[in-house]
Amino acid sequence: MTATQGAQLRGAGQDGGRGPRTVGSTLRAYVALTKPRIIELLLITTIPTMFLAAGGFPSLWLIIATMVGGYLAAGGANALNMYLERDIDAKMKRTRKRPIPSGAVTPRAALIFGLTISAVSALWLGLLVNWVSAALAVGAILLYVVFYTMILKRRTSQNIVWGGIAGCMPVLIGWSAVTGTVSWTAVLLFLVIFFWTPPHYWPLAEKFQDDYANAGVPMLPVVSSRSNVARQMLLHTALMIASSLAIIPLGETGWVYGVAAAASGAWFGFLVVRYALRVRQGLSGKALAPMKVFHGSITYLTVLFVALAIDPFVTL
C-alpha cells in the first residue's frame, strides 16, 4: 500500500478534512438536502388552506398525513434540484456549503435519496390521503425538477416566474386533501402564490446577482435593468393583491381574511412601490435595500395565511 492510498483510506470517514462524520452530521446533511427552510414556507400555506376547505378543523390524522406527504414531496424535489445544480452550487458563495459541493453527501447518494422520498411521498399521499393529492404532488415534483431546474433555470430570465408554479401546488394539495377536488378558491390561492413568487425572489437575486452571474444563471436582475425588474415586480404585486381580494366574493372567507388581505396587500404594495421609486432615483446597495422587500414578502404571505386559518373560527 502506498502512502497516498493509506491517506485515502484514513480519509474515507472524514468530511472534507474537518473530522470524522457522525450519525448526527450525516442526518443533518440529508435533512439539508430537503431545504427545510423553504419547505416551512410551503407548508405554512397548506394547513390554513385545509382549515378553510374544511370550514374548521380537519381531522388531526389528515393534517399530519398531508403534512408528512407534502414534506416528502417537496424534500424529494429539493434533493433532486441540488443534485442537478451541484455544479452551480459549487460556484456560488451562497450555496457552496450545501451537502453535495461540501462533500457531506455524494451526488449518487443525493440522487437516490431524492428519487426515493419522492416516490414514497406519492404512495404516502395516495394511500393515506387521496390519489388526487398524490397526483398533484407528483405534478409539483416534475414541475420543479424537470420544468424549472432542467429546462428553464439556465435558459431564461423568466425562470422563477414559471418555475414558481411548483411552489404554488401545496394549496391545491391541501384543499384536495380535505375535499378530494379543487375549487375556484383554491385556484385563486394558487394564483396569489404564483404572482407573489417573483417579487419575493427577485430582490434576493438582486442581492446575490454576482453569484448568479458567475454561475451563468440568467436571473432577471442579472440580465436586465433594475428599472425593468422593478416594473415587473409592480405588475406581479398588483396581480397578487387582486387575486387575494378576488377570493372574498366567492363566499368561502369572512371578515378576518378580508381585512388581512386588504391591509397586508396595501403594506406589501407600499414596500414594492418604494423599492421601484428608489430604483428610479438610481439608488443601489444598502440604499436600495432589496432584502427589505424579500423579508416583507415572507411576512405578507404569513399574515395572509394565518388570517386564512383563523377565519373559519371567527364569526360576527
UniProtKB/TrEMBL annotation:
Transmembrane segments annotated in the record for this chain: 38-54, 60-84, 105-125, 131-152, 159-178, 184-202, 233-250, 256-277, 289-310
Similarity section: Belongs to the UbiA prenyltransferase family. Protoheme IX farnesyltransferase subfamily.
Cell location: Cell membrane
EC number: 2.5.1.141
Protein name per Swiss-Prot or TrEMBL: Protoheme IX farnesyltransferase
Organism: Brachybacterium conglomeratum
Pathway: Porphyrin-containing compound metabolism; heme O biosynthesis; heme O from protoheme: step 1/1
Keyword vocabulary terms for this entry: Cell membrane, Heme biosynthesis, Membrane, Transferase, Transmembrane, Transmembrane helix
